[in-house]
Structures
1.
Amino acid sequence: MSQTYSVSLEKVINNHNLEVVYLPKSADEILIETAEINRPGIVLTGYTDYFDPLRIQILGWTEMGFMYNMSDDEREKALGCWLSLKPAAAVVTRGLDIPDYFESACRRYEVPLLKTKEETSPFLAALIAYLNKELAPRITRHGVLVEVYGEGVLITGESGAGKSEAAIELIKRGHRLIADDAVEIRKISDKTLMGNSPSNIRHFVELRGIGIIDARRIFGMGAVKPSEKIDMVIQLEAWDSTKAYDRLGLDNEYARILDVKVPAITVPITPGRNLAVIVETAAMNNRQKKMGFNAAKDLMKSLGMDEIIPQDKEVEIWQN
């Protein structure tokens, strides 16, 4: 069974600068467990099938105006029908005034009531994006995550392969470190992975022979970044003379992380190879491919060999 995550209403309030109108208990004790959001218009008419009480409820002009135009009896019945289902919280947008009857009903049914000055649609988008990140499925894996020319590059390999040394060289060349040693990877959507560092080791890098350094203090704030989308994976491995390594890059290799396919390459390590330059080149090449240009395909076409069909292959990047 997949693990589920939650975020406290306190964090939601602080992140979106929400005004607290009523809380039945401390906000850090109220947990939000789904990124889905609801506007309760149809529930106010009495239709409660498929209603999910775990969702935060958003009310704008439409919902507030609908309740205002009801008779007292109709309004009491509608609010009872909705709030008796114990939704996670109700948020009124656009800075609209909250009528006494609405606040009283929330207090009676012990439903948190909040308020924001933001317009409804922008607030919905921001809240969904925030909850998608906070509640996303996640794993933590050994590796280094860096931003190179705007591409998030996850460098993996055995301990001692040179991942941290490559990261330091990339920082000196103007790129940015996101995580060293442990990378927390979150599945933000079916096609997007976001990586960051656990807070207790953020900005620290381990260099054999030197020890632990703080990249932010040594190289400055411009050398680090809190999180980055993972655009490609580079697997470092010791050179194996019996293995046939890809020399053209014609085939498309992918790593599967949290069931998301990410472009991947395997780089053999030999003494004297400049890993930082290789990572830079791989990042730029990956960006070119996303923009529609593949150098290997272009070469095959110029040689009259464009009938060769590239193959998709998955590479294993972690041994469990």
2.
Amino acid sequence: MINQSDAKGLKGFSKAVLIAVIAFVLAVAIFATTAFAGLISQYNVEIVVDSNDAIVITTNETEPIEILSQANITLSDSDKIDISNFTAGEGGTIKIDKENSINVEFDGAIRTYTLYEDTVGEALKSLGITVSPKDKINYKLTDKVKDGMVISIMSAKSVTLKADGKSVKYAIYKGTVADLLSLAQVTLGKDDYTKPALDTELKANMTVAVYRVEYKTVTEKENIAFKTITKKDSSMYSGNQKVVTLGVKGEEEVSYKVKYINGKQSSKSEISRKTVKSPVNKVVKVGTKKAEVKKSSVKSNGVTSRNGYTVGQKISGRYTHYCACATCNGNSRGITASGNRISNGMSNPYYVACNWLPLGTVISVDGTNYTVVDRGGSGLSTVGRIDIFTPEGHAACYRYGTGSCTIEIVRLGW
């Protein structure tokens, strides 16, 4: 039998327990409801940065910036975000295009660009740079663009090498003339050289020539010219000469240092000279005796004056000499303006040419009488100017030379 007072206490205890149980159940229910609600609000978002592999993040955030922050992705002011395929609370894809700075080195020249393209090929295409199959590039066109990367492009240069009688074309990306020779396995001797020089940077369509230099010592025999020695002989009449000794050429051996470039002689310098046979000089006697013609032996024609000139008139003159050759006389037939014939080797006829005195006029030139039988160029029109004929030939004309003289008119005309 239960004590009544105890029953009362039991009733109060049972009620308290019941209330606690109900509270616990309610708390569990509320917790379960809240946890279930939290699970229901989370969703998956795919994030793609610069077309790289996507990352997936589970979030209950609705703002793209908060979602990216949850994924530890920070955007700069220049980055681009694409949320066209994203729906807040449902999911989708958020795309990020980051602005990258790249350096492009093209044939040694470097320029910096900022762009959003993802691959090297796309970046070069956006910059208008075309890479041909012959070009050399340090990245694949499919490689991903990285901030600060240096893309090096070298275009193949066509250069021509001329060496040892051959002309060969080479495709080379970079280097100097020395690099080209190394590629072609062409070796220079100590005196060989190239044009352009070895340190010259190669350029497209350049031609490089190799010059082979060789030195040789060559000994040659050469003639020694003899001299002509003239001796005056007062016993011989002027205009006459006689060879006393014939001239004989000498001979000497001369050594030269000869420079050859690509097999052709370029220069020649004397090293030594040795006389093998001495020359024999030619000795010629030349007459100096004047053959005078007496004035009294000149037949007078009775004319005392003509064209402003008078018999006995003295004029200061100047003489030269000519012979019967075509060069001096104007023809090779030996016919003078007066019709008188002249020839080299004939006895001296004592003729002169001038344009200012009548043909047939006899003049005394420093005491020797000459007859005017010929005409000449405009120079002989000057008063006092005469050309004296010598039958000894052209060399004698130069030997007798020119000079001043005194002219006296002995007779005017024939």
3.
Amino acid sequence: MRVNPEALSLKDKVVFINRVAKVVKGGKRFNFCALVVVGDGHGWVGIGKGKAAEVPAAIAKAVEQAKKHLIHVSIKDETIPHVVHGYFGGEHVLLKPAPVGSGVIAGGAVRAVVELAGARNIIAKMLGRGNPFNTVKATLDGLLQLKGPEEVARIRRGGLEQAG
């Protein structure tokens, strides 16, 4: 589903900034890599990675990329509808719905993604090394697996029509 990023009131959050050095004849040249999450707090979320010689330029590039790759996730009553496991590389993220008033119980990169997606009550556990890039992608993988009640009903109806 395509959406116009200008139509949404998107907020962005910088998750991680990495300084990388290239050794050249005259010494070291430093560049920066920024990981940014954008979201509107109502189900739309995207991630982006930008690289540049200066931090603000890297962040700006990452925000633009994140806006181009927005996805919609199913958020019900400020939590997720069911338990999901997200995987990417060596990272494994467990996302569980939580009762109202629990808040976001998640660490680092996972917290940024679920908060900007719109989940206010959720429990998350990172299982892996904690690489922020892979953790964010694993969280997004888990959120993509979510199915809302309408989608589950549509799938079940489709299954009944095929059986009958």
4.
Amino acid sequence: MNGILAVNAYLKGEKFDNLHNHIIKAAESMDITLKIKNNEELWFFNEKPDFVLFWDKDVNLAQHLENRGIPVFNSARSIALCDDKAKTYLTLEGAVAQPETIIAPFSFFKTDYTGFVRKAVEKLGLPLVFKECFGSFGEQVFLCNTVEEILSHITDRPFLLQQYIEGGNEDVRLEIVGGKCVAAMKRKNERDFRSNITNGGVATPYTPTNDEFKLAVKACAVLGLDFGGVDILDHKLVCEVNSNAHIINLMNATGIDAAPLILRQITDTI
């Protein structure tokens, strides 16, 4: 079986190289020929592989490959829903429990959101969490204690405001593959309200409760994910869902390698 590992041409660094090479080696051990192609190369790629493992967020490219009849994992739709935190929230709204969230109204240009922010603060209280709708590794996420602090983070990029959950510096990440939890870790950061390992969080192996398992599986199913990393706060609230979570951190914490499990899910699906 021949596949493509789609990566971003402009996102470089040792941790990304290590991840990509790790997935390639996992494929080799399963007699799968997996070649790395970046999102620049793939616009000019005329071959038709058996599948594409899309480890990027270039949704337009993912849709283009699907239009050519190539199976893409995860799908363009699922990647788009997970990449935009507002779309993630809205898709899961009413299906799974989440922190109370208010999405900033659309504007064609940078505008004065003071009135909106004041109303949001009345509803959500302070402190609250400011999140730009696009971002990874906890970037563009801020804990705000005043209206002025919230306003200082607003740019021309879409954002949302979210209820702050006490103990938010601790969460659990469940890796779901094919409707099963294959690994889980608890993350805690003593120096930051964000639990992300990139920001100093420390991960340890974790055994999820049955409720956490059901919550994570339901979130992935609603978002259409064949595999995904689900972050849960306070054992009951879905915080974020990742269509291509950084599985090396998970492996380092738990000793469980999700790469061959993801590849097996793909080969079983196609």
